[in-house]
Amino acid sequence: MEVIPGDIQAFAEKYTSPEADLLYRLHRETFLKVDQPHMLSGHVQGIFLSMVSHMLRPRRILEIGTYTGYSAICLAQGLTEDGMLHTIDVNEELEDMAARYIAEAGLTRKITQHIGKAAGIIPQFNETFDLVFIDADKAGYIGYYDLVWEKLRPGGFMLADNVLYHGEVVLPETEQSNNAKAMVRFVEKAVADERAETLLLTLRDGVLLIRKK
Fold this sequence. Notes:
Elements: H1 6-14, H2 21-33, H3 42-56, E1 60-64, H4 70-76, E2 84-89, H5 95-104, E3 111-115, H6 118-121, E4 129-134, H7 141-149, E5 152-161, H8 178-192, E6 196-201, E7 207-212
Parallel strand pairs: 1-2, 1-4, 2-3, 4-5
Antiparallel strand pairs: 5-7, 6-7
Helix pairs in contact: 3-4
């Protein structure tokens, strides 16, 4: 199911600042060489992530789900001078590709890659994060939310991607995939959390913006 009609998406891209050349090349290589390229944030969402980062000027960012590094590069653009983004991915086969583009972007000192299961890595951080971006296995979102919450500063923000899951979340439950069901459970948990304020953005495949009160 198409969440955003193609002509509307094209209109949005037309009136969004152009994709940087490096990100365009990363986008293209991902689609040519990597499985499930639709997982890439892409042009419009990438600009959105960059703008959020520039607005917040975060010192510490946590990204759960590196993939090929597109979103990490976008998020890192608004970091403070001494800022650092920690990004986690379970797929070691994509580590070198992401690292290559991160280096070309001049962000090697600002982005630290971690390979392994996020559930095991997150508890090891002795950091307070200003911004968290979750874009990993959908069944894990609730667990990541719980693991990260105490490490997110009051007033900090969490972004969760793919919460509309190709539009399946509005189908009858019997017609939803397991991932869509996981997304419904996740957004219901976040909305019910009195410690949080939420806004579901119909951007690309759906982004839930969460502010820690």
